[in-house]
Amino acid sequence: MMLGPRDPQDPDAPGDPGTGSPSGPGALLVPPASPGAGRRRRQWPLPKQADPDAPLLVVEDLRTYFTLSSGTVRAVDGVSFELHDGEALGIAGESGCGKTTTALSLLRLLPANAKIVGGSVRLYGIDLATKSENALRRYRWREISVIFQGAMNALNPVRRVGDQIAEPIVERLGLPRAEANRRAVELLELVGIARDRAAAYPHQLSGGMRQRAMIAMALACDPAIVIGDEPTTALDVMVQAQILELLERLREQLGLSLILITHDLSVIAETCDRVLVMYAGRVAEEGPVRTVFREPRHPYTQMLLAAIPNLDSDRRLLGTIPGAPPDLRTPPPGCRFHPRCPLVMDVCREVVPDEVRHADGVRVACHLYPPGGDGARRPIPLPEVAGANAPGAPPAPPAELAR
Ligand SMILES: Nc1ncnc2c1ncn2[C@@H]1O[C@H](COP(=O)(O)OP(=O)(O)OP(=O)(O)O)[C@@H](O)[C@H]1O
Ligand code: SF4
Ligand SMILES: [Mg+2]
Questions:
Q1: How far apart, in whole angstroms, are the C-alpha atoms of residue 372 and residue 183?
Q2: Which ligand is nearest to the CA of 263?
Q3: Which residue, among 244, 153, 240, has the nearest Cα to 205 in the 3D structure?
Q4: What is the pLDDT, as a whole number, of residue 384?
Q5: 185 closest CA partner among 170, 195, 173, 193
Q6: 207 phi and psi angles, rounded to 5 deg
Q7: Geometric angle at alpha carbon 295, from 294 and 298, rounded to 5°
Q8: What is the DSSP string of 142-173?
Q9: pTM of this prediction?
Q10: For residue 380, which ligand has an atom nearest its CA?
């Protein structure tokens, strides 16, 4: 899809239509001189409607439902979170809990049968949920970009990798082709691919290299936020580690903000500042990674953590949480985790728990942690999780946090 030239009358257009170039070749890769001022990482002007003092991203009470002939799937049902400049937020939870739908809702990259039925998504204070489809397109790639699971297979097999990376730079930023090509080569080098590989076709690159190329493409328009939805799942373990290292390095170097969606809590422990644990379309627990992983409060978080092996443990003992997440066409009343919760109480079957923020910054939605309570952790009886660590012991934090 082509975007026209920048329209100075357009409220969504960047503040200074200018030449479209921050300051010539190479500027994309050079951090701004004064990190403290405004958006530290920002190479492009903010959109005109942006409030420079607003948090980067604030999602409030987001609700996204799918319509099926058999009913309505309440895939995301009241999800709130914030993402700050330069921060990495991990989103975790079992399959089908709404992680991808949450991410796709931010830019409304949703399937035709999905609708955002409530809530707001504010980027620099601008509500994206109320934007027209046309207006929203201007935020994709330029402000928020997404690396999908298995994205490397999305590269066009008959086009050179460098050309594919240059394309969004031409289309979205309106830069001349020659400058876009120069940037594409810089981006490839930034993600660890030699400049002469820009002329390669995707089949001439390994899976890891193709995923690096996809990361380069996600960075092409210098977005504020990069969302990685299982960005390493299709890769072997060694390459996974390299890609995660790359994302960490880029975050530091470019001052990116990152949303990392993964089943793998140890990846979040290594890579993220905060973690958001979702269950059945809602937030179960959210807070600083170290705090949540050392002292998980929500029974679901406790069970998820107990189910992952330590690096030095026998990985064949990987635990599973008994039962399965609910059908989101007919989720259970009250707390959606109640049919699987070892600490379930009568109230849990009827009343949806409030999300309560505790003194250490952790937000939990569970009747064990009511508003005004002490917030002290209530451990679940283990082993509730097959293959979990010692009975009665708190779940062991991932080895990365045990150091
Ligand atoms: N196109 C669709 N139509 C109907 N329901 C859908 C559609 N896409 C997803 N869902 C449902 O929405 C819910 C959330 O799905 P989503 O893909 O967001 O979960 P997820 O946490 O990303 O899972 P995974 O870890 O498997 O990627 C699930 O119940 C899923 O079945
Ligand atoms: S609200 Fe009740 S059922 Fe839900 S997690 Fe907490 S204790 Fe368990
Ligand atoms: Mg998903």
A1: 53
A2: 1
A3: 153
A4: 53
A5: 195
A6: -55, -45
A7: 130
A8: TTEEEE-TTGGGGS-TTS-HHHHHHHHHHHHH
A9: 0.86
A10: 2
Residue to substitute in 74, 77, 99 for testing ligand 1 pocket (most ligand atoms within 8 angstroms of CB): 99
- Beta bridge partners of residue 73, listed in sequence order: 66
Q: What is the residue type of 190?
A: L
Q: What is the tens place of the pLDDT at every residue in 56-111?
A: 999 999 999 999 999 999 999 999 999 999 999 999 999 999 999 999 999 999 99
Count of residues in the chain: 403
**Ligand 2 site, CB within 6 A:** 298-299, 335, 337-338, 341, 343-345, 348, 353, 366-368
Smallest CA separation from ligand 2 atom 3, residue: 338
Summarised one tens digit per residue, pLDDT across range 112-148 is 999 999 999 999 999 998 899 999 988 998 899 998 8
Torsion (CA) 12, 16, 21, 26 in degrees, nearest 10: -100
Nearest atom of ligand 2 to the alpha carbon of 345: 2
Percent of the chain having pLDDT more than 70? 80
State in Å: Cα 102 to ligand 3 middle.
9
Residues bordering ligand 3, an ion, CB closer than 5 Å: 99-100
Please name the residue whose Cα sits nearest to atom 1 of ligand 2.
366
Identify the residue whose C-alpha is closest to ligand 1 atom 16.
Answer: 98
Look-up of token digits 């993964």? 262
> Closest-lying ligand to the alpha carbon of 112?
1
CB 402 within 8 A of CB 396: yes
CB of 134 closer than 8 Å to CB of 128: no
Find the helix or strand (DSSP H, E) in which 277 lies: strand 274-279
pLDDT at 395: 46
Structure tokens given for 70: 């058999």
- In the reported structure, the alpha carbon of residue 76 is separated from the centroid of ligand 1 by a whole-number distance in angstroms of 9
- Atom 26, ligand 1: residue with shortest CA distance: 95
